[in-house]
Design a protein that fits this description.
Rossmann fold; alpha/beta; 2 domains; elongated; binds glutamic acid; three-stranded antiparallel sheet; 296 residues
Length: 296
């Protein structure tokens, strides 16, 4: 019997293969869910075809499977959820919380790219929809990071449907988390500043706010974030046990040496039983413990 009070998820964007940094996010959300007998879902965030690699979604799922990070239920693809995003947009329009906007990047440059309040009505069909952000401060609590307080003038009105008619990440993530009943979001700290918009959208759409835990971002020895942009090496299925064992060390879980070659199933079982998320508390960067070889 799974714990109905815990539904977690891993939500990769299929812009490239899984690398070590995204494995840390996947593993942390998996272990947090499984250590509480929760459900762990996988959602492919394929919202932005021009930036995607058509082979990436399957490659990501294959790697998760090879690592034995087995998800529950069916994989959700955001490309198949457009009707739900449209319904949410209509709900926000009906509440006067969404407005059309044709402001250009250049026009917003004096406000650091931020947009505040309604603007002139559109003059042609080419416009974005923005969410009218609250003028109150937004406080975001986190299981790992100090509470973050965002003033209205820090946030501005985020885009929820882009001018090129693609749905924005902010709206899609909120709608899908709610539709899947997600109670716990464990993801990289690089997304922490999206949380206030997501909380505001949840409130306006009548959804519950999940618990959040933002895990530190993995960095290379030179302090740069491991990401697809700086060519972090794609994970392969070879040596998945050794990589998983290293990933547990990066997550400060200290798996015993004798589990290094014991196979993924046993290693994950150990990690579920010993998961201590609080070891990641208030640390902003993860890097290889000094006695480890860098996986890159
Ligand atoms: N799709 C996002 C990414 O790959 C993650 C979204 C989330 O976890 O909220 O960075």
């Amino acid at each position: 019997m799974s714990n109905p009070n815990y539904i977690g998820r891993f939500a990769p964007s299929p812009t490239g293969p899984l690398h070590f940094g995204s494995l840390l996010a996947a593993l942390a959300s998996y272990l947090d869910a499984k250590s509480q007998q929760g459900t762990w879902l996988v959602r492919i965030e394929d919202l932005d075809p021009p930036r995607e690699d058509p082979t990436a979604a399957n490659a990501i799922l294959r790697i998760l499977d090879d690592y034995q990070l087995h998800w529950d239920g069916r994989v959700v693809y955001q490309s198949q959820q457009h009707a739900h995003y449209q319904a949410a947009l209509e709900q926000l329009i009906a509440q006067n919380r969404a407005f059309p906007c044709q402001c250009t990047r250049k026009q917003l440059s004096s406000q650091h790219g931020k947009h505040f309040g309604r603007c002139s009505p559109p003059t042609h069909a080419d416009f974005a929809w923005r969410f009218l952000a609250s003028t109150e401060i937004t406080t975001c609590h986190d299981r790992l990071q100090p509470s973050q307080i965002y003033a209205a003038d820090q946030l501005g009105d985020c885009v929820i449907r882009r001018r090129d008619h693609y749905w924005s990440y902010q709206l899609a993530v909120v709608v899908d988390d709610a539709l899947s009943g997600v109670t716990d979001v464990v993801r990289g700290i690089d997304l922490i500043d999206s949380t206030p918009w997501q909380q505001q959208l949840q409130y306006r759409l009548g959804y519950a706010t999940p618990r959040y835990a933002h895990i530190p971002v993995a960095t290379e020895a030179n302090g740069q974030k491991l990401s697809k942009q700086n060519f972090a090496k794609p994970l392969t299925s070879d040596d998945s046990g050794a990589t998983l064992w290293q990933a547990l060390h990066w997550l400060r879980q200290d798996p015993p040496l004798d589990l290094q070659n014991s196979g993924n199933a046993l290693l994950l079982q150990w990690a579920i039983e010993h998961w201590q998320i609080h070891r990641l508390q208030q640390c902003t960067q993860l890097s290889a413990p000094p006695h480890f070889q860098n996986p890159l």
